[in-house]
Amino acid sequence: MRIPHRFIPVVLLGVLALAGCEGGSQTDDSAPAPPPTTTPTASATPTPTPTATATPDPVVPALHSRTYEQARAEFTRQDISTARLTAAAQHKDVALPRDHDGWYICDTSPGRGTRLTADTTVTVLLAEDFSDCTTSFHGYLHQKNDPAYVPPRTAAPKPQPTATRAPAPAPAPTKATPKPAGGSMITCSDGKPGYACTSNGHPVVDGQFCPKADRGRTLMATNRTMVTCSYDPSITPYRWQ
């Protein structure tokens, strides 16, 4: 390429300048090389691993007054193994039969609401009749089976009064046939004969009424018997008898 004459001085100055720069910019190989510049690289943020939530321990459900069969169904519903459910009789003198599904729950151990750990079992106390749950004689259903029971003493029977018959009424005394008495006939004021006369002038006659004035007197009647003016309850008033 042909350079015009007017640009030759300028070109020479440029060449000299380049030569000077190359000669003055020598590097010292003994100096440590600067560390390489690294560009920070963005690191990927790890995705957090989800933490597994622990399942809470189950609790003893409400079983009071339910049957044993209903208790087993409740355990199954709450995903509790029925193998953790055991049964026993409520009373010491009652034997729990093999088939006790229809027996009623009186109490549980541990009680309702207790948390069940892995090795906890639930014991239910059963009675054949739910009303028996509230009956207890020191843990026995029947009082006679309680060793501390002392039966009351049996009171001696009172002697029964002996039925006695009312005494038979004494027979009315039979009037002994009076023996004739001695004496002589007289004439009373009424003009009639007799062995004795009443206070009002009549002959004394056995069985006749006697006047008040003659009460207690004993005289001979016309039949020659001695009679007294006395009161006879069966015959009123006083008579000679």
Describe the fold and architecture.
This protein has helices at about 10-25, 70-75; strands spanning about 85-90, 105-110, 120-125, 185, 195, 220, 225-230, 235-240. The protein has about 240 residues and is an alpha+beta fold. It contains two helices and eight strands.
| Biggest beta sheet summary | 3 strands, mixed
Morphology:
rod-shaped
- What is the average of the pLDDT values? 81
Oligomerization state:
single chain
Strand content: 15-25%
If helices are DSSP runs of H or I spanning 4 or more residues, what is the number of helices?
Answer: 2
Alpha carbon gap, first and last residue: 214 Å
**Poorly predicted residue ranges:** 176-181
What are the salient characteristics of this protein?
single chain, 241 residues, alpha+beta, three-stranded mixed sheet, three-stranded antiparallel sheet, 2 helices, rod-shaped
Short description:
This protein is of the alpha+beta class and 241 residues long. The model is unreliable at 176-181 (pLDDT under 50).
